[in-house]
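Below is one record:
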Amino acid sequence: MIKTIFSYIKQYKKPSILASVFVSLEVIFEVLIPYLMADLVDKGLANADMNVVLKQGALMVVLAVCSLIAGALSGKYASMASAGLAKNLREAEFKNIQNFSFSNIDKYSTGGLITRLTTDITSIQMAYMMFIRACVRSPLMLFASLFMALRINSELAIIYVFVIIFLGFFLAFISIKVHPRFEKMFTKYDALNTSVQENITGIRVVKSFVREEYERDKFKHASDDVMNLQKSAEKLLILNGPAMQLCMYAVIIFFSWFGAHLIVNNSMTTGELMSLFTYSSGILISLMMLSMVFTMMIMSLASMKRVAEVINQKSDLTSPENGIMDVKDGTIDFENVYFNYFKEAQGYVLDDINIHIPSGSTLGILGATGSAKSSFVQLIPRLYDVAKGSVKVAGVDVRNYDLKVLRDNVAMVLQKNVLFSGSIKDNMRWGNENATDEEIMEACRLAQADEFIQKFDGKYDYHIEQGGSNVSGGQRQRLCIARALLKKPKILILDDSTSAVDTRTDALIRQAFLEKIPDTTRIIISQRVSSIQDADQIMVIEDGKIIGLGTHEALLENNVQYRETYLAQNRGGNEDE
């Protein structure tokens, strides 16, 4: 985990080293100041020797300025290094998420991934900035001050050994108790972000169902969970402060009592006692800083684990070495295919599927909700892998293709149509980034989208809001179909993608497909028989099994479910008329 995180320092190693170097210089300058102060008091003020006072005073000012400059530079380079580490981690995490297969994505919630990209990365950034400064400064200051204190009076300075041992055990105890609480807290952060993401994305649904109060309560519950866990952890962490204060005042009282006796007995000078007080502050402040770093590291360890988990997550689907780089045609074959989303699940989502789909033909798929229609088509571009059997495109098992090549030749319009913020042209170029304006317009005409686009302000430069919230459901579907057509695929899959358009527009889209892309294999999933009745073959699927396969006329005669669906839809249409 830690090795994974720190491997992303990369080009920011130099600022990290410079931050440590300058903070070391800062400590050296600071440690020398009390030593000079002892001479100033004992040799200068005590003897009324102004030459010594001015000389030592000037040296102390120079050291203070040098310490200030070194401290400022160490802060600058520490900020550069920590911000760079955060940038690299964020990029690595986001890049790996793009490589996830659908099964990998299923393991994480959207809110959880957002938390790992934001809150967790920020926690690591802050911890690293403190680490490269405080974890150099504090031990160096601690041991340098301890060395100087022992040099002045080893008998008094021995108390620091007991203080360090006491605080070491105390911090170890806190670590064991606090770390599990922070791990739970970040899990609750996932739930909080998921609640926010769902509410904002679905705000129109929330308002239409008057569920604002419910959403507020849901958010409050998630927020309270985070707060309670954080309070539980902080109740232990705040004990650091009293423990440090206890040690600091104990040392001051100890030095005041025994130091006074030593001065009276002429075993110590006043300047030496003042220096000991200064070094004691340095030692205790160093311990306090180590305690703060320790606290921050406890918090960040949970974040490191979560970020490293995403970065190290290997995609379940990868391109084979020397994968086939050419898809010859759109022929599809399912041969004894069994499929499940989870290996440990009982039974199969798809059970012994066998079908041959010739290149350039149209396959219609009909089935009830949950019958595995979408699961069937998601195997073609290898969004998931089969459990048993094989799916072949152009006579080649999809597992033997280069993934990018395969998916470039399979255009899929999913049930949930997604548009991104930007112009219509920007969205269309997701299908082909080099598409010309004429190609974009032609694809939109085929998808029956050009007609409504021409009515928009700016036409093809019309700005689409995030998610396509400023266009209707039917318009969104047609724009997504046009985007898929721009890929010029060998296989086009419409997963119930015309459900929001009227039957006339649906018919025009299908007619345009037949005339303009006759060589493309078309797979149309629909709940409307009218959308698929002209297909070359129609597959009726139920509970992951094919229960009917044939033309519209053959299925009307031989398949009860298809016939009942057809009659029910036609009867409904007649009543409307």
